[in-house]
Amino acid sequence: MPVSIEDKIKAVETYINSFSKQDVEAIVGLYADDATIEDPVGTPLKEGIEAIREFYTGAVGNGAKLELEGTPRCAGDSVAFPFRAIVDLGGNKAHIEIIDTFRFNDDGKVAEMRAFWGPENMKPV
Length: 125
Hints:
The chain has a single domain (5-114), classed as Nuclear Transport Factor 2, Chain: A (Roll). By secondary structure, the chain is an alpha+beta fold. The longest helix is centred in the first third of the chain and has 16 residues, at 5-20. Helix content is 27%, strand content 42%. Strands 1, 2, 3, 4, 5, 6, 7 and 8 form an 8-stranded mixed sheet that branches. InterPro entries: NTF2-like_dom_sf (IPR032710), SnoaL-like (IPR037401).
């Protein structure tokens, strides 16, 4: 059964809010067991739930905070959403402007996440 627009947007909200709460398990719970992450696009895939848990444990452990910066866009089995990550880079705060995409499987779990950003999207705070 296709994932509803409401469920896609709820997944985005859970993702953003769970970062602020440093709730790795809530983030990991969004993903299918065989999901992949490409963050940023062009880097090696993180494949499977354990690699995903390790990835988010590091990201949340660095104290990153996320802020949605626009309306999620839903199409087909996917959602794209712009947000800002506030990160601490060795005592210097920066924000990174990012667009993520989630592709969902038929069970409503994220099967693929891709993050679009590069050095030009990092700015000091």
